[in-house]
Every structure is written in structure tokens, then in C-alpha cells.
Amino acid sequence: MSLEVTDLRVSTSDGSPVLHGVSYAIAPGEILALVGESGSGKTTAGLAALGHFRRGLVPVGGAVTVGDTDILALAEPERRALRGRTVAYIPQDPALSLNPSLRIGRQIAEVLEAHGMADDGRVTEVLEEVGLPSDEAYQRRYPHQLSGGQQQRVGIAMAFACRPSVVVLDEPTTGLDVTTQALVLRTIGTLTAEHRVAALYITHDLAVVAQIADRVAVMREGRVVETGTTREVLGHPTHAYTRELLDAVPSLDGVAPAGQAGAPVLAAKDISVSYGDVTVLRDVALTVATGECLMLLGESGSGKTTLSQCLSGLAAHYTGSVELDGVPLPPSTRQRTAAQLRDVQYVFQSPFSSLNPRKTIAQSVELPLTRLTTMDKARRRERVAEMLDRVRLGSALADRLPEQLSGGERQRAAIARALVTTPRVLVCDEVTSALDVSVQATVLDVLNDLRRDLGMAIVFVTHNIALAREIADRIAVLLDGGIAECGPVDDVLSRPSHRYTRELLANTPKL
Amino acid sequence: MTAVEAVEIVDTPDVPIRQPGLFRRAWALPTAKIGTALTAVVVLVAVLGPWLGPVITGYGTTDFAGKPFQHDGIAGTDGIGRDVFTRFLAGGSTLLLYAVLATAIGIVLGAAIGMFAGYSGGRLDSVVMRGNDVLLSLPQLVFALLAIAMIGPQGWLLVTVIGVTHAPRIARVARQATVAVVSNEYIRAAEMYAVPRWRILVGEVLPNITGPLMVELGLRLTYSIGYVASLSFLGLGIQPPSADWGLMINENRIALIVQPWGVLLPVLAIAVLTVGTNLITDSLASAAARKEAR
Amino acid sequence: MSRLIVRRLVVSLAVLWLVSLLVFVVTLLLPGDPARAILGQQATPERIAALQQQLQLDAPVWERYLDWLGGVLTGDLGFSTSTQGSVNSLLGDRIVASLVLLIAAAVISTAVGLVLGTWTAMRRGRPVDHTVSGISLVIAALPEFVIGVGLIILLSTTVFRIFPSVTLTRPGAPVWSEPGQLVLPVLTLVLVVTPYITRMMRATMSEVLDSGYVEMARLKGLPERTVIVRHAFPHAIGPVAQVIALQLAWLAGGVVVVEFLFRYPGIGQALIDAVNKRDVEVVQAVTLLIAAVYIVVNLLADIVGILTNPKVAAR
Predict the structure, then answer these.
(1) For position C171, what pLDDT does the model report?
(2) Which residues, given as ranges, of chain B have pLDDT below 70?
(3) What average pLDDT score do residues C261-279 get?
(4) Same domain, yes or no, for C202 and C258?
(5) pLDDT digits (tens, 9 = 90+) for C172-225
């Protein structure tokens, strides 16, 4: 059966439109990627395929046809009979979507029961299809006893249990690391092909699209702006927005920005951290030179955030030493001198929590100057204005509260706060991970400019190897609390010496 | 380690308009306006009543206007011949004063303890909160009765006991709100710039927990009024021959059928007052919750 | 899991012990000579001397505490100076009478609160929801005695005369021998507590209904009944149990006022009498009993929370 959505219009219950006539069609055995940034309405357009609208949203026109049935014309009990059986849904975050208090076997069997199908070993079978153990003991586990990747495959098993004709996948790999993502994508690809399912794959990641989709629909502000085969859309985009999105995708094949590396400025020597029995970092050593950007690459749990906090004095319980110009820094910011604090600055991961919502941007940016310098009020104001200018935030934004700024603007304000004392080393912890792709590009651009103009050293902490050529001179790959490999970007990307780096590169989706 | 990796957050291209403050958002709700009107009426009666009473009725609060259960005047006389309306007008001021003072003590103590425990964390936090648990296991009214049994029904004791027993309850809320705020990276940033602890508490934490604190303030004021009135009703709060609403209800309830005003007027006043403050509190709570939902 | 429960039990015992300490320390606040403070200015020197002897005022504080605690632990709550009898015989029947009141009110308000809360959570934003929240907001604001007096005016004296406003039981007969007189006290307590349980249940249930797993359950095509009963309700029980426990403790305080108002022969009324007469050991005993009720109820709520959380229970 195919899925066809024609001229679908959805509004909020107070009448402001969310989708302005969205159309897309998927043939059996085909995967259509619905691409868009946050707020584009892609999830609403996807959930409509199940005749489901979240609280506060109502369909006001159009049709959703599965086979020959218009779902929107059906009454609720009839829609319910289709859900899970004919049209199935795979959610974005399995940790939130699996019921924490029911065993996973039970949750899969429940779909079969709801549609009057006997189990007959189907639960076991579908668990095997998604590559999970299927024994009794495994089925009796609770969701929290599984890893993120396993949880997502349980979600997939649940969706495929009734052998549906249409599957809606809502960003199913967003929270997963690249290796698990590759595995889940393979499972999805195999299952859709085998069962001739029409699949709608909702995502913001164009690189994933290149890997899995047959056709692409690009959404923006509640409209589909461009549709076509994956090759057409990614190769020869016709709409300006698609081109903009494509340009913003970090590329592993580009040319790294050339920095003039000078003398070593910050060095970490034999840093080890453990909490109780858990070792987070073991004997890590690295240096970064003036004007150089070092990428600290690692997945969640690799210890990269802890390491960056040791460098900047936010995590004081480590052994080993951090040296600035060969002079050891005290472990905690509370013991560092004003000069030392000015020289090593830190930008936090989330711009949504790193700025006090009750202070204006100017007040937040001024704080380091008030605390760490002897400048008078007038000079501080001048300096704040200059810095906001440098991160391309106009002076008009200076007196706004963070809530009046977009995420990208907030992150640039946070960078301005870190730069206002002209540090010699800037530590950036996952500064783009909470941002949309196009916003990420702007922030990286700002950082590159600043590095060139001010000649400071940057330690750029990230989980995304695809950003390497966009920002870094050298890469240090962190694995289980130790450095697996370290070297210039070109060397590491073209001749990775460690098995883990090779695996990462192989699993990272490319356009 | 970095759960935020998975989250994708709306990046709105157009700049949102600055949200109005907590009080303005609360005021936009009908509950706030109704609540304020109800509260204002009773507060006016309570504050102006002691002066107006003798002017309107010609009797003081302890004057005997005539025989018991007369029906002349506005509301007649009580069981020992005192003018009911005069006593009603005079009976709210002490209640209100005690309630406000008790609430103030509770909010200052509670917020200080809660913020301190929430920001310090660790062992200090758990010791303070376990101590709290002990105090919480006695209902406030029972605690007050225990103290009154030992020292006697005195004004300062009522205020202190009710205020002090509010504190652990407010501290719980303040601590929870503080813990949520302290998990934010802007607190790390302030620590990184070597801002002293007390300035972090006052400058960074306090402005971000005013929502829950205002809600607590309203809630505890409502309860304070209830407790002071209840204790007077039990004969263990404000003492005769003072005119007081709680006490009046106690004195007049035996004669409810003959002289209903002696009970009805104070009951209505307390009811309108507590409903009013509770409506205001509710509007503050929804305004604060709406802010968080953004 | 059982280790967690045992730990929780130990904490409860520790809290109870600290409360006993607190209740004892407060008695040290008695001004001047406690015996004179209790008996008043007119008391004869002989009576004062006798009471001093009885209160063992010459013994050190810790010895008096241990003595008292030992008595409490062996079931001897002390001596009542105003009735000149043992506290046990004074409180015996009253404890039962108060428990009847408390349990009846608790059962009714919990049932009503859970049902109303769930029902309104499923109809969020509709007129029924607004009506129920409006009414509960108003009732929640009122002190116990205002609700009680209101009910007396409405159902016992001025408007209708259906139920008695005072409890009059022949000596020796249990209070429930005339169920009619239980109606108003129980109804008052139910009205005091139900709004809180309703509001909390509505809030928790709303949150659960908006959760990813409830949406997923619907998208799996499960019937709405199954969604509510199997996927939503169990998750609301844990947090709501905590609130119900808090409210029941509140009931224990409210019982004092309600018993006084309706002249109900329970421990609350005994407490008020004792406070008026400075009958110290009765005050201590009743206070400790009420704290014990609170601690036990909270313990039960925490155990419910532990049992309904598979992350803990599966260990």
C-alpha cells in the first residue's frame, strides 16, 4: 500500500496555521526523507500519516490516503484500528517513548493483541529481525536495562510487529552515536526493502538522508519547498533554502582553515580523574599552541567534557597538571589568579542554560570584566560593545534578555562573554550541538574569524568528526578516558591509525 | 555525559517580544482580579473597622449595648449584650497582622535555609533536609498547640510558632527551585569568574526563583490566616475580651439559631479573605508555570 | 529492593525518635516552676510538692527523658494531672474514635480525588475541568472550622436540619453506634483534603498523558481504556501517593479542630482540653501519636513509590 498526503493543512486550536498545504507521496518499498530544521512542521506532517495530531493542533483541510482509505475521513475507532497495524510509528527518543514500567516483550505483544493477532512466536521473530536477542530472559527486561541503540531497535520491532504497510520514522537516530546510528539505519533499510513498506523518514540531517532515502521532500515553515529524488535534490538543488541547508552541512572533504600555529601555550600533563571506582580520564596529555585549534573528539562517556573542565578549572579533582606557558595552574578557578582566569576561558555547551535569564546580554558579557579587571564602568561598556560587534551581534541586542534571542545569537553572546577579557586559550565544549545546522555554520564561522584576528588557541570539544575540516588544525581522539590518536587533521582523516577512528569515519554519513 | 547532544532546539529567526514580568502575566488572568477584589474588601474592613465601628454603631467593642440577643442595630447583640457589628468590624486587624508577620518570618527563614542547602549540596544539604523532615512530621497546628500548652496563648508565640513551622515547608520548595537553577551553566560561569558564594545566591539564584517563592508567599499567607483564626476559634489564640473573628465564631456558635450574625459575619469574612488570597496565589502559580513551559 | 525498604524503615524510626526528643525538649520551656505553672497560683504548697515529686523535677533532664521514653516504649503514656488517672485509660477509646474519623475521611477523599483528578485531566480545558478546578480552588482555601461551621449552618441548623451538629454518645457506647453523627465531621475532613488530591492527580495525570510513552501507546493503536489503565495510571500513582500521605498528615492536624467543633470524643478534643489545663503528659502523648501517624503514612507512601518504580523494583 502507498501513502499519499495531499494539500494537508493544520492549525493550532486558536487558528494560526502550522502546515500550509503539505503534499507528499510514498510508493511501497520506497523511503521518503522529510527534511527540515526545528519548527518546520515536519513531525506534525509525519504524525498526520497516522491520523494523529498533538494536543492543540487540528487538521483543517487536505487528505491522508493509505491505500484507498482517507484516514482523515475516518472516525477515531477506525483510525485506531489502522494505527500500529497498517501505519506504524517509530519515535525520536525511545527512552521517553517506551513505557518504563512494562517489560519490552509485553510492549511488543501488546500491539499484536490490540489488533486481534495471536502472538505465535511473532514477538521472538520480530526481535530477531531487528537483530536483538529474542530469548525469554531478554523479553522480560525493562527498557532502562537496555542501551539507547537497543531501545531504538525495540521501538522498530514494535512498529514492524504487525507487518505494517506504512512506517513513519521520526528522527530515530538523533540521540545515538554514529556507530549505533549506522547499525540502526542498516536495520531500517533492510526491513523496509524486505517487507515492501512505504517509509517516511523525518530528519534534520542531510548526510543521513544521502545514506538512506530514495526521495527527499524539504520542508520549511510548514511548506514543502522542494521534492525530488535524493540524487536530484542533494546534487542539484533548485530551491534557495535547500542550497543553504546543503552549504551548511559540515564536510569531511573540504580544506581545513589554515591557522598560524605559534609557540605552545596550554599543556595538560598526565591528567587522571576517577569518581570512586570509575576512571573517567587516565594519563591524558595534550598541548595546544597560540593560534591553533585542537579538536577534542569523543562520544558521550569518553571523558571529553571532564577533560575540558579540568583545563578551565571547573573540575578540580584530578591528578596531573595543567600548565599555561609552562607554569602550573591551580586546579580550581577559585584558586586561580585574575590574570590566569582571563587567559583561559570556557564556552559552555548549551546557550539556553549558560546565560542568566534575568540578566541582559550586556550585563552577562560584562561580568568577567567586573570580576577580573580594574576597568571602570565606561571602559567596560565600550569593551562589551566592541566584543558584541566582533561576534556579529549588534548593539541593539545588548540590552535584551536571553529569551529575546535565538539559540545561535545566545551562543554568540556566550562566546563574547568568554572573549571579552581577550583570553589566550578558549575552551569550547560542544558549543554547536544544541543548534540547527545552518546556525552551527554561523557559529563556526565566527570562531574561525576570531581565531585569525586575535591569534588565540582554541580547544574545540565535540562528538562530531564531520566538523574537523570546518574548524580544526589538529585532532585528539578520546576513547574511554584515554587519547587513542592525535595528529594533524589531514593525517587523521586520511590515514587514521586507530581502529576506533577508522570505524568512526566509516560510519559517519556523508552527502 | 552530554545528554544535550540529542536535543534539537527551536531557533526562531525573528526575535520574540520580551515577556512581561510575573505579576503582569498573573494580572492578565481573571483569577488574579477576582482574588484581589475579594482580598481588598476584607483587608479594608479589617484595617478601617476598628475606627469605623464606634462611629457607625455608637458602641465600643467591649461596651454592653443592651440585653443579650437584641435585634436592634445592624446585627444585634451577642449572648452577653455586646454589639455584634462593632465587634465584627474590629475583629480582623489582629488576625491579619499576625498572619502577615508569621508569613514574613516563614518566607525569610525558609528561603534562606532552602537556597543555602540547595546551593551547597552534599552532606550539609542532606543534614538540613533530614532536620526538616523531623519538623515536617508534626502538623503545624499540633506544633502550635504543643508550644501554647507550655508557654500560654500569647501573640508573639502564635506569630513565631506559625512562622517557624512554615519555614521547613517553604525551605523544601526553595531548595528544589535552587537545585534546578544551580544545575544551569550560568552558575558555573559565575563560579568561573570567582563571584563570591553569597553574591551568586543573591544575584544569580534569587532572581530566578522568585516565581516559586511568590507562590509560596501567597500559599503560606492563606494558611497563616487559617491557623491564627483556627487557634482563636479553639480558644487558644487571641484571648477574650478582644474582638476577633475566630474567637467570635467560638463565642457565638452555641446561639447560632437565635443570633446567626455573630457566626455568619466572621465566617464569611475569613472565607472571602482566604479564597481571595488563594485565587491570587493560583494566578501567580499559573503565570510562573507558563514561563517555565516556554 | 527490600534493602531500600529496610533503609526507609530505619529512617522512619530515627525520625520518630527525634520527634520524641523534640516533644520532650519543648516541655522544658515551661516557665519558672513547672509544678506551679501547671497547677496555677492558688495551689496549695502540698499539692505543688506532690506534683514536683510526681514529675521527678529533682532528677536530671536526661534521666527524666529516658524514664518517659521507656514508659512510651512499654506502652505507658504517663499520668494525667487534670483527670488524675493514667493517660492510657484517658486516650484508649479516643484513639479508636479518631482513627474511625481519619480512616473514613481518608478512604472517601482518596477515592473521590483520584477519580475526579483523572476525569478532569482527560477533559483538560473543557467546561467540566474549569468548574471542578474552580470549586476545588475555593474549598482548598477555607480553614477546617470555616468549612465545618458552613456545613452546620447548611445541614444542621439554619437551612436544613438533617444531621446533628454535636456528637452525643452514651458513655461506653462506640461513636459509630449512631452513624448519623459521624456524617458532618467526616464530610468536613473530606472537603478539606479532596481538593488537594484532585488537583495533584489532575496535574500528574496531565503530565503523564502528555508523555512520550502514552502518545506511543495511542500510536500503537491501543484502545483508550488500555492506554489509561495500563500506560498512564500506574505512572501517576507513585507521585500522587506522596501527596496523599502529606494530606493525611494534614488530616491528623485537621482532626483536632473538627473534633473540637463537633465535640467528637477523640484524641483531638483531649489535646485541646489538655492544652487548656496544661496537662503536659497528655499533650506529649497525643503529639507523639499524631507524629507517629504521619510517619507511618509517609513510610507506606514511599513503599508504594518504591514498588511502582521498576527501576528500583527490578533490582
Answers:
(1) 66
(2) 1-19, 291-294
(3) 87
(4) yes
(5) 677 777 777 888 899 999 999 999 889 889 989 988 888 889 999 999 989 888
Looking at residue B256, its amino acid is: L
CB-nearest partner of B142 from C27, C144, C253: C253
**Same domain flag for C165 and C212:** yes
- Per the structure, the complete domain to which residue C75 belongs is given by 2-85
Residue from B8, B14, B209, B292 whose CB has the most chain A CBs within 10 Å, to mutate: B8
Q: Is C296 an 8 Å CB contact of chain B?
A: no
Q: C-alpha cell of B238?
A: 487571641
Q: B94-240 has which fold? A: MetI-like fold (1.10.3720)
CA dihedral B8, B9, B10, B15 (to 10 degrees): -150
**10 Å Cβ neighbour count for C246?**
20
Contacts with B151 from chain C: Cβ below 8 Å: 29-31
Neighbours of chain A (3+ CB pairs under 8 A): B, C
End-of-domain residue from the set C85, C109, C139: C85
Residue of A nearest to B194 (CA): A334
Location of C-alpha cell 540547527: A436
> Is it true that domain A3-247 has CATH number 3.40.50.300?
yes
Whether B191 contacts chain A with CB within 8 A: yes
- Are B282 and C149 in contact (CB < 8 Å)? no
Nearest to B141 among C146, C253, C274 (CB): C253
Sign of CA dihedral C60, C66, C67, C69: positive
Topology of domain A264-359+423-507 in CATH is Rossmann fold (3.40.50)
Query: What span, in angstroms and rounded, lies between the C-alpha atoms of C125 and C113?
Result: 18
Q: B226-253 pLDDT, tens per residue?
A: 999 999 999 888 888 888 899 988 888 8
Q: Are residues C73 and C113 in the same domain?
A: no
Domain boundaries, chain A: 3-247, 264-359+423-507
Distance CA B292, CA B266 (A): 39
- Cα–Cα distance between B260 and A463 in angstroms, integer? 76
Q: At what angle do helices B185-192 and A361-372 cross, to 10 degrees?
A: 30
> How far is the alpha carbon of A265 from chain C, nearest alpha carbon, in Å?
47
In this prediction the pTM is 0.85
Q: Please check whether residues C9 and C104 belong to one and the same domain.
A: no
Q: Which of C59, C85, C111 is the last residue of a domain?
A: C85
Question: Which residue in B has a C-alpha nearest to residue C292's C-alpha?
Answer: B137
> Mean per-residue pLDDT for A433-453?
85
Query: A419 is written with which cell numbers?
Result: 572573549
**B216: exposed, middle or buried (C-beta count within 10 Å: 0-12, 13-18, 19+)?**
buried
Helices within chain C (DSSP H only) = 2-27, 34-39, 45-55, 61-73, 87-122, 127-141, 144-155, 183-209, 212-219, 224-226, 233-262, 267-276, 280-307, 310-313
- Write out chain B residues lying below 8 Å of A38, CB-based: 8-11
Which of B138, B225, B279 is opposite residue C137, by nearest beta carbon? B279
Chain B residues inside the 8 Å CB shell of A341: 192-194
Q: What is the CATH number of the domain that holds C111?
A: 1.10.3720.10
Same domain, C244 and C142: yes
Nearest chain B residue (CA) to A334: B194
Cβ(C191)–Cβ(C247) below 8 Å:
no
Same domain, C170 and C261: yes
Nearest Cα neighbor of C230 from C212, C213, C206, C210 is C213
CA distance B107 to chain C (A): 19
3-class DSSP assignment, residue B121: coil
Q: Of A142-156, B124-138, C107-121, C162-176, which gets the smallest average pLDDT?
A: C162-176
Q: Can you give the three-state secondary structure of B6-67, one letter per residue?
A: HCCCCCCCCCCCCCCCHHHHHHCCHHHHHHHHHHHHHHHHHHHHHHHHHHHHCCCCCCECCC
Based on the domain organization, do C151 and C258 belong to the same domain? yes
